[in-house]
Amino acid sequence: MDIIESFHMAFTTLKANKMRSTLTMLGIIIGNASVIATLGVGEGARRFVESQVNSLGTNLLFVVSGSPKAQRRPVFPPQTLVLEDARAIAEQVPSVKAVAPQLNATERVNYRSKNISTLLYGTTPEVLVVRNFDVGSGRFFSDLDVKKNTAVVALGSDLADLLFEGKNPIGEQIRIKGVSFLVIGVMKPKGSTFGVNFDRLAFIPVTTLANRIVGQTSPYGLQVNFISVSVENLNNMEAAQFQIENLLRLRHKITDEDDFTVRNQQDLQQIMGSITGALTALLAAIAGISLLVGGIGIMNIMLVSVTERTKEIGLRKAIGASQNDILLQFTIEAVILSVLGGAIGTGIGVGGIFLIAQLTEFEAGISIVAIALATGVSGATGFIFGVLPAKQAAKLDPIVALRGA
């Protein structure tokens, strides 16, 4: 019996037992869909994290308070950075392009009857270069505003809409903790990064925030939460980091453990990428178990099928079908169920990826390798788990099979 006839008989048999065939494929369908969807979500998460890190700016170093050991503790490290540290970095590290210190505080912003809690972003004009912010209308505050502690504010686009409801806010006065601020600009939309909605921020001079809102809290100068540093080019990142660390050790008179940590943007991206990669691998392994379960299901159903079709096997062998013919047909049936289930599961998995992309911020990350791997594994699973039942069917004695039937 040739291969074409074996395929024809296998399709005929499977079509005659639609319910059994569907239930047999179910495990493979679920397994394939799970693996492809999981790997797709993982790829989407990787792209999302990469875009989030890149949206922070380009060629960035982040200087934060506390030693690397303190960063891993569940409590906040003491704030040891001051505004003069940022100025020293800008003046004394040659490979640095711009430096933007940052001081944050959460306060309520008032305009007439509107009262909105928001994050105050105290910084300097260099933040426009360092963090890729753009002014949509009006202007940003200047170095003179920082020097004079001027009560001016540039609003994020969402915050401006919430407070003024479409009205032009430029020139209007808002109040923050009892202090009147002049609105001088509205920022272009930037979106959210790592849970911070930059369109809901209120940008004010760092000196104004420290002296008129939160108060001075450090005897060594105007305290800041952290410092963002933009380096001239990617090749100078390691040199700039080394120079910044040495400069701050001299300024802080450090002889033992550092009271600050310098983070590289690339290191941050690698850390986040390794986390998402590990989670994806874990979820894919769990989903892969479904393929194994599906293969075992195929074997069980095929074994039952051998018992149910004992008479058919006996008749076929009695009229001349060889062991190889029986083995080939049962193997083909198992492979067909696996490949067809894999194809359906692939379609469901790809559809699930697009659905998740629509409902979340993740991009649709469809991996051709994942699809090929899942489909190939499902086909191999059907072949491997179909061989044992096929061999059992091929070894049946035709006389015993007819008599047992």
From TrEMBL:
Which InterPro entries does the record associate with it? ABC3_permease_C, MacB_PCD, Macrolide_Exporter_MacB
Q: TM segments?
A: 21-42, 278-305, 326-359, 365-388
Q: Which GO terms describe its molecular function?
A: transmembrane transporter activity
Q: Where is the MacB-like periplasmic core domain?
A: 21-247
Q: How does it sit in the membrane?
A: Multi-pass membrane protein
Per UniProt, the keywords (alphabetical) are: Cell membrane, Membrane, Transmembrane, Transmembrane helix
Where is the protein situated, by its record's location annotation?
Answer: Cell membrane
Into which family does the record put it?
Answer: Belongs to the ABC-4 integral membrane protein family.
> What name appears for this protein in its UniProt entry?
FtsX-like permease family protein
Q: Lineage, please?
A: Bacteria, Bacillati, Cyanobacteriota, Cyanophyceae, Oscillatoriophycideae
